Amino acid sequence: MCMSLLPKHLHTTLRTHSQKVCSLYKRAVRNEWSCYDSPWEYRYHARLIRARFDEHKDIKDLRKAKALLMAGENELEKNMHYQPRQFSYSPGGINYGRTVSVPDWVMDYWHPLEKARYPEYFARREQRKQEYIERWEKKYGKPQHDDH
């Protein structure tokens, strides 16, 4: 099973050989997804890739395994699709960053008549805000105001 596949610039620890192989496999299959519009063609070529990986899964010599991994990386780089498909909500996708998250403090500026429509929610919200302030002050102390 593959570990999380973070972008290379976000890795903070060394990856094992099996994690690198898993990453190569996933990127190769995703590259095939970009190359074929028909799901049948894509699945056929994805199975061919899986068969190629399964051929070498029992290699115990780490030098041979590393050489195979490097060859696979070079082959993938050489055969990379010129316009890879991306998930729409992933970075680079057409919907990435379109959803705006409204910050919680906006609700502090609701009109009292608007708040009156949801009395239980706003009562609980005020209680939780007070608990948060108390935890903050307990941990960091009361804020000091500079009155110049």
Main pleated-sheet profile = none
Query: Could you say which overall geometry the principal axes of the C-alpha atoms support?
Result: elongated
Distance from N terminus to C terminus (CA atoms, Å) equals: 61 Å
Secondary structure category: mainly alpha
Cα radius of gyration in angstroms: 26 Å
Helix content: 40-55%
Average pLDDT metric: 90
Q: Which stretches of 5+ consecutive residues score pLDDT under 50? A: none
The tally of strands reads 0
How much of the residues is beta strand, in percent?
under 5%
Task: Output the helix-strand order.
Answer: HHHHH
The DSSP helix count reads: 5
Domain Complex 1 LYR protein: 19-77
Subunit structure: Mammalian complex I is composed of 45 different subunits.
GO cellular component, one term: mitochondrial inner membrane
Keywords: Acetylation, Electron transport, Membrane, Mitochondrion, Mitochondrion inner membrane, Phosphoprotein, Respiratory chain, Transport
In short:
It holds the Pfam family Complex1_LYR. The chain is mainly α and 148 residues long.
Keywords:
transport, 0% strand, mitochondrion inner membrane, 5 helices, mainly alpha, Complex1_LYR_NDUFB9_LYRM3, 148 residues
Task: Please render the helix and strand layout as text.
Elements: H1 17-35, H2 39-55, H3 62-78, H4 112-116, H5 119-140
Membrane topology: Peripheral membrane protein
Main location: mitochondrion
InterPro entries: Complex1_LYR_dom, Complex1_LYR_NDUFB9_LYRM3, NDUFB9
